[in-house]
Amino acid sequence: MANGYMGKILWVNLTDESFKEEELSEKIYRQYLGGYGLATKLIYQNMPAKIDALSSESVFGFFPGLLTGTVAPLSGRFMVAGKSPLTGTWGDSNCGGYFGPEIKKCGYDAILIKGAAKTPKYITIIDDKKQILDASDIWGLDAVQTEEALKSKHGKIQVASIGQSGENISLISGIVNDKARIAGRSGFGAVMGSKKLKAIVLKGNKTVSSADKELLLEKTKTYNEQIKAATAGAVEAWRTLGTTFGNVVSFQIGDTPCKNWGGTKEDFPEEKVNKISGTELLKYKEKSYGCFSCPVQCGAIMKIPEANIDETHRPEYETCASFGHLLLNDDLKTIFIANDLCNRAGLDTISAGATIAFAIECFENGIIGVDDTEGIMLKWGNSDAIIQILKKMIDREGFGHVLADGSKIAAEKIGKGSEKYAIQAMGQELGMHSAKYYKSMGAAFAFDPTPGRHTTACLDMIAGGPIIKPDGLFEGFTLPKKFKRPGEDRSEAEKLIAGLWQSFNSLGLCEFLAFFQQYPLIAFIKAIVGWDLTMDEIIKIGLRIQNLRQAFTLREGVKIIESKISERAVEIDYLADYKGYCEKMGWNPDTGYPLQETLKNLDLEFILKDLY
Ligand code: SF4
User: Fold this and answer.
1) Which of 67, 77, 510 is the best mutation target for the ligand 1 pocket, counting ligand atoms within 8 Å of the beta carbon and taking the most?
2) Which residues have a Cβ under 8 Å from the Cβ of 564 and sit 6 or more positions away?
């Protein structure tokens, strides 16, 4: 009997409205774990190269981590994965809440979608009964309304759905669950919208079995008690303020960008920053909220009387930065409204805020004017204008249509030299962390197979947690001594973190765990799945996944090595940094192509025919 994983996946074909189960061997799980590790293998082999991500032949899916659905702390995450319509590369997007565990409860390690419906549909998997149902009465509703409508019809269920932005095929749209958790990056809302798939409804009746329940409970209890006992440091910061603890401090240290990545602290002085601090946001908190199996519960449900919002989720740091600092906007109410609008429409807040920053800079520099924006005065810090233009982006109305697919495409439409104000990588706006502060973020933003992301393996950011000490985060994981300085040790460290991180994500773990305390990873894998994995094996699995993510992007014809990001976001030679990493990865540093020997060593021979 399988432990940890369910042993099968579900294929849904929207064209002929069929379902097909497929059993997977233990070998596949040992090689790819779950989450986007499993996704790389399944999608690489089931989706031919150079398929339009928005066509019916495009395949995407929902992938809970290998440990997801168990009580292991912070293991409840899932990934949406496939080809990104925004960047044309491999795409994945991490999300929390309760939807991922429910996939396992339905008996599957993945739900993969292919084909396309002619009219709006939604999928239900309720107590083993699978159906594709008419969604015409919920098409047009926002994600919160959709979830409420489906719950009133089907009872206690979990829902992942798209809002208006996904329906309108906005390339910066995502997929929403738990009313505000959004797999926002990579543009999968548009993929779902292109397939006319409004929602997936799940209610399972299975349990995820574990190899050693006693060990699992013992390790879980110890970890959770330590988390609960922590009254200071990262745990307390996350528990109290969530990611918004960074709203002030990250800006002070030079991490948070402002004024479309071109500003300084003088542009957004302390009194303005303090108006959008985590403490200010906290005043609106009604109760705590968090993901399945998480003892931290870093989310918050809020009520915002000033904005007539009775119930909404606390905006994350990324949202506060993209709608606050980046736009020189110190109006907290606007940030709440923008966050709520984006969550409902299913719009990625990072890309939405950053695209508005691009538009403001175009306006301020006379590239566009009120004739283009239908009278909206797109000026720095004009909070009313921010909301007006955001609504237009959601509805693809007027100038909002120009902005609805992100800043790169908007710049191509506008022309007149506007591209220098589009701060993005291969079409995706950068996460709200400066590569001038976290130096290794430059190469991660520019060259990761899923570009523009702050959540990919960024050595300098992860090194802000206990991982810098031997055995500090995971037993058996050590960084090379001189990893902070350019050179061999640093490149080796970047490779180790890349391997570790891909496995970490594929296990379904929350990335914030890296900033808390030692996590008995090997013991949890042993207790849940029954495998005696070593840290070296965990890293090797991650490297296999990273090579496959890379190969997917290269197979699409994308010249990764030519990717560039704005000088506003980076100050080191990030290409040189990447070349050092490529050499350690066993990749050609001039092209980013994995060497044949590297692929063979990782049991990835099936890629050879595509790259050579
Ligand atoms: S720390 Fe926050 S985001 Fe991470 S699993 Fe817990 S509640 Fe979810």
Assistant:
1) 510
2) 425, 446
Q: Are 78 and 114 in contact (CB under 8 A)?
A: no
Q: Do the domain assignments include residue 497? A: yes
Report the CATH number that the domain containing residue 513 is assigned in CATH.
Answer: 1.10.599.10
Chain segment 114-145, per-residue pLDDT in tens: 999 999 999 999 999 999 999 999 999 999 99
Three-state SS sequence of 127-151: CCEEEEEECCCCCCCCHHHHHHHHH
Residues 83 and 192 in one domain: yes
Residue 423 beta carbon below 6 angstroms from any ligand 1 atom = no
- Closest residue (by CA) to atom 2 of ligand 1? 298
Distance (angstroms) between ligand 1 centre and the Cα of 299 equals 7
Question: Against a cut of 0.90, is the pTM above it?
Answer: yes
Which residues constitute the domain of residue 469?
A: 441-611
Residue 1 reports pLDDT greater than 80: no
pLDDT the model gives residue 423 = 98
Structure tokens at 51: 């398929």
E-only strand ranges, 305-421: 309-313
What is the rounded distance in angstroms from the CA atom of residue 559 to the CA atom of residue 561? 6
Query: Do 176 and 182 form a contact (C-beta atoms < 8 A)?
Result: yes
Please identify, among 394, 422, 450, the residue that sits at the C-terminal boundary of a domain. 422
For residue 237, tell me if it sits in a domain. no
Q: Which of 203, 222, 253 is the last residue of a domain?
A: 203
| Arithmetic mean of pLDDT, 437-466 | 94
Provide CB contacts within 8 A for 79, sequence distance 6+: 35, 36, 39, 62, 63, 65, 92, 93, 94, 95, 183, 505
In this prediction, residue 19 has a pLDDT band, given cuts at 50, 70 and 90, of very high
pLDDT above 90: residue 399: yes
C-alpha–C-alpha distance, residues 215 and 528, integer Å: 9
Q: What is the pLDDT of residues 283-297, one digit of tens each?
A: 999 999 999 999 999
Nearest to 150 by CA among 206, 207, 99: 99
Confirm or reject: Cβ of 295 under 6 Å from ligand 1.
no
CA distance 244 to 248: 8
pLDDT tens for 247-264 read 999 999 999 999 999 999
Phi-psi region of 237 (alpha: psi -120 to 50; beta: other; left: phi over 0): alpha
Q: Is the dihedral of CA 601, 604, 605, 607 positive or negative?
A: negative
- Co-location of 482 and 599 in the same domain: yes
Contact indicator for 100, 68 with CB cutoff of 8 Å: yes
pLDDT at 355 over 80: yes
Q: Are residues 529 and 463 in the same domain?
A: yes
Alpha-carbon span 408 to 354, nearest angstrom:
11
Contact between 52 and 44 under an 8 Å Cβ cutoff? The reply is no
Whether the pLDDT of residue 390 is over 90: the answer is yes
Q: Is 39 in the pocket of ligand 1 (CB under 6 A)?
A: no
Among 583, 261, 612, 306, which Cα is nearest to 429's? Answer: 261
Confidence at residue 231, expressed as pLDDT on a 0 to 100 scale: 85
The span from the first CA to the last CA of the chain, in angstroms, equals 39
Verify that 75 and 179 share a domain, yes or no.
Answer: yes
- The ligand 1 atom nearest the CA atom of 289: 7
- Give residue 236's pLDDT: 94
